[in-house]
From TrEMBL:
It is an enzyme of class 3 (hydrolase). The lineage of its organism: Eukaryota, Metazoa, Chordata, Craniata, Vertebrata. This is Alpha-amylase. The keyword Glycosyltransferase does not apply. Belongs to the glycosyl hydrolase 13 family. GO terms for molecular function: alpha-amylase activity; metal ion binding. Its cofactor is Ca(2+); chloride.
Amino acid sequence: MLSLVKRREKMCINTNVEQQVSVVLLSHPGKSMRVFILLALFGLGLAQHNPQTKHGRTAIVHLFEWRWADIAAECERFLGPNGYGGVQISPPNEHIVLNSPFRPWWQRYQPIGYNLCSRSGNENELRDMITRCNNVGVNIYVDAIINHMCGAGGGEGTHSSCGSWFSANKKDFPTVPFTHWDFNDHKCRTGSGNIENYGDANQVRDCRLVGLLDLALEKDYVRGKVADFMNKLIDMGVAGFRVDACKHMWPGDLAAIYGRLHNLNNKWFPGGARPFIFQEVIDLGGEPITTREYTHLGRVTEFKFSARLGTIFRKWNGEKLSYTKTWGEGWGFMSNGNAVVFVDNHDNQRGHGAGGASILTFWDSKLYKMAVAYMLAHPYGVTRVMSSFRWNRHIVNGKDQNDWMGPPSHGDGSTKPVPINPDQTCGDGWVCEHRWRQIKNMVAFRNVVNGQPHSNWWDNQSNQVAFGRGNRGFIVFNNDDWDMDVTLNTGMPGGTYCDVISGQKEGSRCTGKQINVGGDGRAHFRISNRDEDPFVAIHADSKL
Ligand code: QV4
Ligand code: CA
């Protein structure tokens, strides 16, 4: 049995499940054995690819650095009513508290232990949020930092979010407890103890990522502590995890940890439902470690999607929107069922991680709205919308000097609440992209067209494209520097539809452009390149 499980891990280096199954079938002749292995593959693998969203909801929002109390309110007043399926929250566990720089956002990626008090709130507030979001059909996904603890230079004392004592010098974290036996330094073969060369998979997994104390996840004891932490959250009602820094952990160690996770709490989820797992692996090509080593364990973040979409909408390197006719696997991305996609994330929007100048963010709002709409209209992947805070961006020679700045805060460093303005936007530096009309309405579009095929593609061989989703929705983009005036086959039933980009349907009236679809499914679109939003989207529920 053990050796079988080991073989399974080795064989599942393929991206797609059919391939995995056939490899297994070829190498194991016994019939009952085949059935067992098939079950094991589907049970341990596929189930964790399911985001477990409720009511046919299809998009997740990352409420980066939000307080638990604000997320709970947002679930009830906005996310539930507008069809968002879930929230990725910032790390809930105890983390280091830093003075210089003062309270950077990234202090939360330096765990001190697994007590549940953080910059976003305490355990009671966390529990209240999980309950209230679940009650309105919105899932919570936890950002789990399990590769490491704080930086080796993190000192000693009680400068931690729950006030627990720890010593980075002695590698002593008594609340878990972890001691120096539980870290990887003996395995790391670099002079500095840090990862020095991403071309060497051993050091990427066994050495310190930017000086962060690297956990020995091959130890049963360490796996147990990590699984206990995750299980506590599952029992509280979370639907799954964004697992941080997976490139830096061995797939076999992750398989062992995921295998220990409880089923989801059946107060809110069906019996036997597995936690959704999506793993952060930045793979833009050119390194020995690829996303393929992780796709059998759960979904994986597709960073190529974010990087390429930015270049396309910016029209850099001769890229054109018309080239996206084969968007998805056709562009060398991982298979659809394995991917989590996004236009930007909390790292690359400020030059961390796979950040590059091509990444589109709220700072380039016109192109950003188009790119997010493209992502939400397209069937590829589980989609994640970013929701940011503003900071004093100050770029010198391509590097943002203020890329460390934390969320809107009071003088003592505590995070400010998110105030909602009368026009439904957010105040106090919270950007709330997920509330922008164009983005909110495209989340609804994605729910309405769920399960429908990509259809009725049209392009002008430049940057004007259109596509539909069966007979449920249609979207048209003009990213050229000239006007667009075309008649297209939408595949939609005849009638008058309200464009959900320039406005929306309110009761029986439309606050934006109206689109007339004839009995033959054809409709006329005029989109000026100078429009505030040079794209148009209609769907079954926007019919007047
Ligand atoms: C500094 C020096 C090191 C030195 C160390 C000694 O730079 O050379 O060895 O001190 O102690 C911060 C600082 C970094 C500092 C480190 C440790 O920026 O300068 O090292 O802390 O004190 C976030 C930030 C990092 C931050 C980290 C921990 O992005 O800047 O480091 O949090 O606070 C790769 C990975 C990928 C990763 C991405 C950023 O493959 O997994 O880099 N992305 C995830 C998260 C990301 C987070 C981490 C991983 C780490 O999305 O937000 O890093 O949990 O591509
Ligand atoms: Ca590691």
